[in-house]
Amino acid sequence: MEDRVIEINFGPQHPSTHGVLRIKVKLDGEIIVDAQPVIGYLHRNAEKLAEMGSYPKGMIYIDRLDYVAALNMELGYVLAVENLMDVQVPERAQWIRMLMVELNREASHLIWLGTHGLDMGMLTPFFYCFRERERILRIFDEITGSRLLYNYFAIGGVYSDITPKAIEMIKAWTDDFGSKLEEIQSILGKSYIYVSRTKGVGVLTAEDILSYGVTGPMQRASGIKRDVRKNSPYLYYDRINFDVPSRTEGDVYARFLVRIEEMRQSIRIVKQVLDKLPQGDFYNKKYSKPMLVRLKTTGESYVPTESPKGEFGIHLIGDGSSIPYRVRIRSPSFANLSSIPTMLKGYKIADLTAAVSSIDPVFGEVDR
Amino acid sequence: MSDNILVTSLDEALKWGTGKSLWPFTFGLACCAIEMMSAMGSDYDWARFGSDIFRDSPRHSDLMIVSGTVTKKMAPRIRRLYDQMAFPKFVISMGACASAGGPYVRGYSVVDGVDQVVPVDVYVYGCPPRPEALIQALKMLQDRIVAGKVKH
User: Fold this and answer.
1) Helices A91-119 and A252-276: crossing angle, nearest 10°?
2) Number of domains in chain A
3) Whole domain around residue A249: which residue ranges?
4) What is the CATH number of the domain that holds A273?
5) Is some CB atom of chain B closer than 8 A to the CB atom of A277?
6) A90 touches chain B (CB under 8 A)
7) Does residue A82 lie in a domain region?
8) CB-based burial of residue A360 (10 Å sphere; 0-12 exposed, 13-18 middle, 19+ buried)?
9) How sure is the predictor about B13, in pLDDT bands with cuts at 50, 70 and 90?
10) Distance (Å) from the C-alpha of residue A143 to the closest C-alpha of chain B?
11) If you measure CA to CA, which chain A residue comes closest to B33?
12) How would residue B146 be classed by pLDDT, with cut points 50, 70 and 90?
């Protein structure tokens, strides 16, 4: 009777893996003894392919890293390139970037909220979240011309200006998204089943967080109040007011509350940006499109940014040619996912989907 | 047998029924999976076209939408999932990556096209295709099933 431990595979095809994650789970009855994530099912050489073309060409691979928050990924890349080459960016472009990034953070968290509801056996939040997300995507469609992968940020600015119609759409959205969010939160947060399935599940302590390098909402749910936007501000995050939500429980429910509160703060940021949006150029005229492919530089740069999943940064090394020597991607989902063995050990098999979906992994970014 | 009126009519009815009750397989690979979710979500609502019940098991479903980049590590799993599906079964290859490798075609770990692994009925272009394009592909597949033009 000693050898009762059985090993089962979770994934790579499973509705709750948010992509192509495989977890080797060792079970003693219902209790998880060990869980090891197996990744690499979506490894598509983003880093190497970005090192094969000129600096602006790398953008399309960066776009497809975290495909639910593509603008956040683009921001990390353009900031790294601009830091490396000392590119001046017009003020209006920076504000537009902030606006778009915060809208995309909302879209990303809405996808998380909807699929998290699906994982917990609720179909309704999915439809509510996608209804709200489609409104944001329509704004993106109006501004950038595409729905999911934008290639909108350019080195030295953005590719197109915000139209008055888009500003109207954003204003209408900010006015009533708050109440919609309240509604979605109450579906989950007031459900006894949801709360009892998530409270005290998948707990990560502050020491675990630091030892695994976990960042983002997961980190803030475990009591470490750190946000790159506050701690080392990029763009103009130092000029606006917003709070960094945090909790101390470190369980799935705390992550849910932190993400919901982050969405509220994003609405605040969007409202402030709309008030402060100045007139002017939306790109640096020195860096016109034919110039961009000829950019050459030497040196290194790393700019951390706060993506919806955590700290995202790109370490760029230039060797004097027009092709980057190294594009190293610091992806938050990868570090967050590595905490799975600690997070799942000792819990029941039914808690696995709740805990895994609370990481919000996106496999374009984990496997790169 | 084909001259028999009863059997011919039954066959027509069967084709019509198969086309109008496709059960897709919840199987997302990459970026395109998000657009596939949009297509089944609130605004696009492709349940209107008789293909609403996303099944989580390959044994329950008869339409596989390959939505994303097929890597060499994932390709054997896709074949296995396809083999587990019961006949009649159909495959839609969604997006540039699944159809031909897309922007990652130069990568060492990427299969250039899912048609090297499973037979494909309809290809959808775009990176990623909009939900409208996926719905058009679904309609195209349904029409072909009803007309009896699918090969397998």
Assistant:
1) 150
2) 1
3) 42-332+347-367
4) 1.10.645.10
5) no
6) no
7) yes
8) buried
9) confident
10) 16
11) A19
12) confident
